[in-house]
Amino acid sequence: MAQSRFARERFGTRPGVSILEVLFAIMITSIGLMGAIAIFPAAMMQARRGAQADATAVAGITNVHAFDAQGMRQPAKWLYYNGSAFAQVADPDGTMAYCIDPRFVAANLNDSKAHKFPYDSSSSLMGRVTLSNGIGTTNYMGKLLADLNFQIDDDISYDRFRDGVVVRDNTLQAASIFVRDGSSNALKRQSEGHMSWMATLAPKLERMPTGGVLEDRYVLSIVVFYDRPGDLTADSTGDRLATEWALKINSGDFHDAGINGGSVTLTENSTSLTADERARRLNIHAGQWVMLRAKTRGTASGTNRDMPLCRWYRVMDADEPDTSANTVEVTLAGSDWETSQTDPANEAEVIVCQGVVAVYEKTIKLEPKE
């Protein structure tokens, strides 16, 4: 009896939890849940970016090998439009760079402006070519064959519906979607069609004060697109929005002497464009890839001639466009840009292509024509 009384006096009677404490607990829990929910969209975006980066990395490496496997090193397979018909390109001599883009060529067969890169370019630094379809020497790839070779089918389509099931049931496994023939026979797995690629080839310029060049060695760049505009048909009348364009870099606009690319001011002062279109073209954002190109000064093979210097850079940062001056300042990351070896009489350009998410480079040696 005495021990029981002692225990009650020592520990006392535990009071209950007040309603105020309960409300505080609910408030703290709610704030924590709201904070967790707020990061879900950001986490999902990071997950999508990670999946996209993984897919583009695989696509880039795969298509470096596909370039060799399909014999694209052979200039004999490159075709260009000469104004009336397709013909084989001349033997590369280091004076021109090339963009192998059969999908764009197939969409603009009779448009002579489409056979330079970018579209309607006044520069002769880079020509856009297609490939032979393997039937004869001057038969070009059509749209279907170009899509088959230059679209990437790794992003397979799935659906959670089943035949005869109208309501989505997340307990069912994902079903593959197939391309079918007229008899509903499955032909192949259907892809989302987000990814595609093209290739650029630029002469491998050595670090020589005379601007020398090894004429059979080129830098191959596999350019991977994500959601490149589906309709690649260009329009010189301006009714369609451009998907690729050039921005000028004036003398003195390399603010870091071109070291690792560095800070650069880009200009779009074309009087033929509307103010809205100029602003759209200057709307560069971090993560984009752009090509920086110019003519080199000096000689090669003992003669004075123009040689293209073309390199891809990633945009690390970009300011808001200055619409009053039609300029935008960006920070590029890549190899050093040797401003002392580019022709000051010819302004450097930055080529912007919509949808480029990755670029993979490799030095190759072209195969001679047979």
Automatic annotation (TrEMBL):
Keywords: Membrane, Transmembrane, Transmembrane helix
Keyword Transmembrane helix: yes
Transmembrane segments: 20-44
Superkingdom field: Bacteria
Protein name as annotated: Uncharacterized protein
